[in-house]
Design goal:
The radius of gyration is 32 Å and the shape is extended. Strands 3-2-1-6-10 form a five-stranded mixed beta sheet, with helices on both faces. It has helices at about 45-55, 85-100, 130-140, 155-160, 200-220, 245-255, 275-285, 310, 320-370, 375-415, 445-455, and strands at about 5, 10-20, 20-30, 35, 40, 65-70, 75-80, 105-115, 120-130, 150, 165-170, 175-180, 185-190, 235, 260, 425-430, 435-440, 460-475, 480-494. The chain is α+β, with helices and mostly antiparallel strands.
Length: about 500
């Protein structure tokens, strides 16, 4: 079994299994500012905390599966025709480039085959920003923990519950994870950050309820044939799940029936199972799936990817074509035939050097004669400068007049694809690209707008470069309403 290491912005947890039972577990609080939104900002300080935890527990460091709460990621389900194994990687990368709006050179990709049609093979593709993984690997190396396997926390949660149809929500102080498992497959994985200082627990639970509703609606809009039953059970895990107040608030705000979390492994009576749910999933990575006592026969399929696979994947060397081999042979023969010409060329260069010396002497005499006409030459140079400047002004004027149509066409394209819930705050149109800033009510609206711009086939590249969430108060001073506004920035290359 593996040792599980779970890092968040507030604490670090480790857990190990012995057979089907929790062997050791421990946690350590982290200082503020070391980790934020899944990115380790101070690898050395976090590494020291990890080292302290491993020393105190005596756990081995050779096979550690780790995850980071709030990690940014993007994922897709794609289908490809069945093909030879040697062609799969290139085909997946080509498909990912079309499906994922972010530049692939900024992501580490990993994937796993999943069941598909007879003539097709489906794949789950997961991309994580490289700087997030690089910072995590740097942290582990400072603690003498070899980078072995890295998992996504929502996938570890799905592995923990091992159910066919269920919703799993992990509630921690710094991160809420949402996983929809339908037909035994984690079809929707989502992470949100709870509101910070000043926000009450009730407000964050209401936000969670809204997010569950939006997530279900988004999934059903893309998969009309796979409706989510309102009777689908909801399992709550995480540090906050241990608080009774949380359960009461969820029952009041969320329509899905809440079921208790039953860990798939045996544990001591005082073990806080809900708080260590994702750690259990990390420790079970690659283990055979089991049906939990008292649960339905599970048809769950584990998404068992390693986020480090993209970092350490070596590019395949392309085989040398026979055409290039014959071309090399012909080149060698040509060099042998052309060597006499090379010798003749060297003799010609010697003769040319003599002629160049004679030409230099003649040129010196001409330079002496040209001094007489220096004033005339200066006048002609001034006239030439004035003429060139006038031509430059004329060309700039023509460029501006010709570009007006481009700016108008670009403005019509970006406004024509704008959904009703989008509003612009700033547009900059340049000859080679366009930058759009705006506000909307949902992250999905911004992503849908970017997809609509890309589907027009008028631009070479469309990507969302910024997404942020702002809380705004509206209305009269005595009747203020708090709303969430999503701000975004989209970069378009013509």
């Amino acid at each position: 079994m593996y040792v599980a290491l779970n890092i968040s912005s507030t604490n670090i947890k480790v857990l190990s299994l012995k057979g089907n039972r929790v062997n050791k577990y421990a946690g350590l609080d982290l200082a503020d500012g070391l980790v934020r939104d899944g990115l380790i900002l101070q690898p050395q300080a976090v590494g020291e905390a990890v080292n302290t935890l491993f020393k105190s527990t005596g756990l081995p460091r050779d096979k550690v599966v780790f995850s980071i709460a709030g990690l940014s990621f993007t994922y897709r389900f794609i289908s490809l025709p069945r093909m030879k194994p040697a062609l799969i990687e290139e085909s997946i990368l080509r498909a990912a480039k079309k499906e994922i709006s972010l530049p692939l050179e900024e992501l580490y990709l990993s994937w796993q085959p999943i069941p598909g049609k007879e003539t097709e093979q489906s794949y789950f593709i997961l991309g994580v920003p490289r700087n997030f993984i690089d910072a995590a690997v740097e942290t582990l190396k400072s603690t003498n923990v070899p980078p072995y396997m890295m998992d996504l926390r929502p996938l570890a949660l799905a592995r923990t519950v091992q159910r066919s149809n269920v919703i799993v929500v992990n509630l921690d102080a710094d991160c809420f994870d949402i996983v929809f498992i339908t037909g035994g497959l984690p079809t929707v994985i989502h992470t949100i950050s709870p509101r910070g200082e000043g926000a009450t627990l009730e407000e964050n639970i209401r936000r969670l309820s809204d997010e569950l509703t939006k997530t279900a609606a988004f999934y059903q809009s893309d998969n009309p044939e796979a409706q989510i039953n309102p009777a689908t059970p909801l399992i709550i895990t995480g540090d906050l799940a241990e608080e009774r107040q949380v359960g009461d608030l969820i029952n009041a705000e969320i329509e899905y029936p809440v079921e208790p979390f039953i860990p798939p492994v045996a544990a001591p009576d005082d073990f806080p199972a809900a708080a260590y749910a994702s750690s259990i999933g990390l420790a079970l990575k690659g283990a055979p799936l089991k049906t939990l006592p008292g649960s339905e026969q599970s048809h769950f399929m584990d998404i068992n990817v390693n986020l480090l696979a993209g970092k350490y994947r070596k590019p395949k060397a392309k085989p040398v074509s026979s055409r290039y081999i014959w071309l090399s042979v012909a080149l060698v023969i040509a060099v042998g035939l052309l060597y006499p010409l090379y010798q003749a060329r060297q003799h010609a260069k010697t003769d040319n050097l003599k002629l160049a010396t004679e030409f230099s002497n003649v040129q010196r005499e001409l330079n002496l004669a040209s001094l007489v006409d220096e004033e005339t030459i200066n006048a002609e140079s001034t006239i030439a400068d004035i003429t060139a400047a006038a031509a430059a002004v004329r060309d700039a004027k023509l460029t501006i007049l010709n570009a007006r149509g481009d700016y108008g066409a670009g403005l019509r394209l970006v406004t024509g694809a704008m959904p009703p819930q989008i509003s612009f705050t700033w547009i900059e149109i340049r000859p080679e690209d366009i930058t759009i800033k705006g506000e909307t009510d949902s992250v999905f609206s911004a992503l849908a707008y970017a997809a609509a711009l890309e589907s027009q086939n008028h631009f070479t590249d469309v990507r969302v470069t910024s997404l942020d969430e702002n809380v705004v108060e509206t209305g009269a001073p005595d009747e203020t309403t708090v709303i969430t506004v999503i701000t975004f920035e989209i970069y378009i290359q013509k």
